[in-house]
Amino acid sequence: MGFRVTRIDVSGANLRNFRPDLYKYGSKQYNALIGRLKRARCRATLHVVDERGRPGTISARVRDIPLATLQHVLIPGATQHSHVRPSDLAAAEQILRHNPEMARRFRSSRVQPIDWATLPFDLNASKVMFVQIVSVGKDGSVDWGAQTIENGLFPFQDFALSPAANILHYGQGGFEGMKAFRQANGDIVIFRPYENAQRMQRGAKRLVMPPIPEDRFMEAIKAAVLAQPELIPPAGSGAALYIRPFLFGSGPVLGVKPASEYTFAVFVSPVGPYFKAGFQPTSLRVETKYHRSGPGLTGDIKADGNYVVGLMAAKEAKAAGFGEILWLDAACENVEEAGAANFFCVVDNEIYTSMLTGTILPGITRDSIIQLAREFGYTVHDDAKLPLARVLQAQEAFCTGTAAVISPIGSIEHDGTKTAFFGGSEDVPENSVTSRLYKALLAIQEGRWEDSVLRGLSSQFIDRVKREWIYVLNTAG
Ligand code: PLP
Ligand code: COI
Q1: Ligand 2: does its nearest atom lie under 6 Å from the Cβ of 403?
Q2: CB neighbours of residue 430 within 10 Å
Q3: Residue 225 pLDDT grade (very low, low, confident, very high; cuts 50, 70, 90)
Q4: How far is the CA of 338 from the CAs of 165, 176, 236, 285, 361, in angstroms?
Q5: How many whole angstroms separate alpha carbon 191 and alpha carbon 197?
Q6: What is the pLDDT of residue 64?
Q7: Least distant ligand from the CA of 191
Q8: Which of 48-52, 109-113, 415-419, 454-458 has the lowest mean pLDDT?
Q9: What atom of ligand 2 comes closest to residue 178's alpha carbon?
């Protein structure tokens, strides 16, 4: 036992030219470099948890920190660096074990506990991120294996970016969104991450970026989540750990062309419901002035640029008192999506969602809900466009997404007329299709396999869901 070291902060050290590894330990040059660090008033702080689980800090001299740690920096010119590589933390723990004088400097610190029940969908807390910067060779190749996963782990921090980075001007970038859950049995799981890996590959190709190999994507998200298990909400809290992988052109360009350097990164944040109302119905406004996508555009991938085109529409709708927008196709005839989520409605107990027209994001939650609903015995129409006229006859409406889970839609306003769903009720009736699917999806994600809401599903389906939808990161105990 002893201290668990969670982060090492080093301040005052400009490590740009600090390469003591070039010199023999204890040699004149080596000592001169260390002396330079000392004169520069470099300090180190170890963030630790003591044997009794109390968080705190231990101040240290920089020369007590292993050199391999000091050399692992994301921004070499900076004078403050923090380190979270597992090997660095283990080395610091070892030093503490052999240095009782240092350990006596433990100062406990107060940590504000996270209130899981009231978390908004926001960047609430993030400690560690994964970063890999790759160059594209002349032949278009990328050596993703050149960096170890461990060497990609850094504290959540700013990037150093060229002012001419492609992403800043021409928007070469895309992202993904997934959730990790602590299941009822204590397992830490991610919901259908292979689907995200594949969608991100498709997106990267469309944006002329190098696709991230599936293995690398999986290892990176796994490392980012397991580096900060304390941020994964407890089972049944209603919150989840949102995982945000992203890839962007970080290389400089002036002419419009693909970057030759790309940054792949993953950060996480514990989150609550996407819509303020939670599982209360949200009001939508049909958008006819703006469009998020069109034939041949990038609506079917998670391109950064898709989201900025929606900001004005969302701002105007929110200013007018609506929760979100309902996107139509370019002809303003068919319903495509609801904000950053897929749209569904229920007409006479049959479920409708737009076919994947190439202008709609193929949501992983959408696919899960279609499968789940069919397994419950509902008829699901997902092979045709969804006319607005049909939607306005529906009894229920909801949208689906990683962030949105299933969010009920209480009303849709179009041309000054409001259509209400769920019989105009402020709450979603317990016996509605929407409520049943919502509860079933959550039970699956949270691993409540005995929950009565799953009773209508066959054991073959449940077995397949466990096998194919639930990616177990870490089994309990
Ligand atoms: N549509 C858009 C535009 C989105 O951004 C998202 C979110 O990822 C979705 C739909 C839902 O997709 P998923 O269920 O895979 O999260
Ligand atoms: C998601 O559901 O993961 C999204 O990407 C939605 C949003 C936060 C952009």
Answers
A1: yes
A2: 8
A3: very high
A4: 32, 18, 27, 9, 11
A5: 12
A6: 81
A7: 1
A8: 109-113
A9: 3
Q: In testing the pocket of ligand 2, which one of 402, 407, 445 has its CB within 8 Å of the most ligand atoms?
A: 402
**Is the CB of 201 within 6 Å of ligand 1?**
no
Name the CATH topology of 282-446.
D-amino Acid Aminotransferase; Chain A, domain 2 (3.20.10)
Question: Is the pLDDT reported for residue 276 higher than 70?
Answer: no
- The answer to whether residue 302 is catalytic is yes
Q: What is the pLDDT of residues 66-116, one digit of tens each?
A: 878 888 889 887 888 999 999 999 999 999 999 999 989 999 999 889 999
Dihedral angle at the C-alpha atoms of 458, 462, 464, 465, nearest 10 degrees? 140
> Does ligand 2 have an atom closer than 6 angstroms to the CB of 340?
yes
Specify the pTM: 0.95
**Residue-range domain boundaries for the chain:** 3-108, 116-271, 282-446
Among all bound ligands, the one having the nearest atom to the CA of 337 is 1
Q: Which of 299, 293, 375 is nearest to 329 (CA)?
A: 293
CATH value of 116-271 in 3.30.470.10, 2.40.160.10, 3.40.50.10750, 1.50.10.20? 3.30.470.10
| Average pLDDT rounded to a whole number, residues 13-39 | 75
CA distance 333 to 340: 19
